[in-house]
Amino acid sequence: MNHETILPDGWLKPKGYSNGILANKGRMLFMAGQVGWSAEEQFASELLVPQFEQALKNIIAIVTKAGGKREDICRMTCFCKDRDQYLATRRDIGKIWKQLMGDHYPCMSMIFVVDLLDHPAVIEIEATAVIPD
User: Fold this and answer.
1) Which of 60, 33, 40 minimizes the C-alpha distance to 122?
2) What are phi and psi of 3, to 5 degrees?
3) What is the pLDDT of residues 56-94, one digit of tens each?
4) Three-class SS string for 6-75?
5) Quick check: 131 and 72 in contact, CB under 8 A?
6) Is 81 in a helix, a strand, or coil?
7) Measuring CA to CA, how many Å separate 88 from each of 64, 83, 91?
8) Confidence of residue 41 (pLDDT cuts 50, 70, 90)
9) How far apart are alpha carbons 36 and 52 in whole angstroms?
């Protein structure tokens, strides 16, 4: 395995993220924020859940193109416009996560913002991966 999850002694295991990941050797891939649009930059929906799914697929596509896999993603930051919609749909988002990412949980942050550049985006995900040599 190229990465080691770090959990300090006595800390509770986090739910849905890792507190730290130690990457061994590899190439670092920095990914720009991905919104929930297609390769043609078209939004299929204005709702959070389908946009989250597409944005996560976009991240995975970039990692795959670089020669990596989803488990190589070490850090992920999500910028979301609608806290209430996020809280109401966490279960659906969790199902999508399991389908696309399995049991891999990078270090993650969820930040709620006023707006995003690409309208009608409601979520943007940026990530960093370490792809084994």
Assistant:
1) 33
2) -130, 150
3) 999 999 999 999 999 999 999 999 999 999 999 999 999
4) ECCCCCCCCCCCCCEEEECCCEEEEEEEEECECCCCCECCCCHHHHHHHHHHHHHHHHHHCCCCHHHEEE
5) yes
6) coil
7) 31, 9, 8
8) very high
9) 6
What local confidence, expressed as pLDDT, does residue 20 receive? 93
For tokens 């488990």, name the residue: 71
Instruction: Name the token pair of 97.
Output: 């996560």
Q: Using alpha carbons only, what angle is made at residue 33 by residues 31 and 39, rounded to the nearest 5 degrees?
A: 90
d(CA 85, CA 93): 11
Domains, the chain, with CATH or none:
3-131 (3.30.1330.40)
Spatial separation of the C-alpha atoms in residues 23 and 93, rounded to whole Å: 26
Torsion from C-alpha of 22, 23, 28, 31, nearest 10 degrees = -50
The DSSP 8-state label assigned to residue 118 in this structure reads S
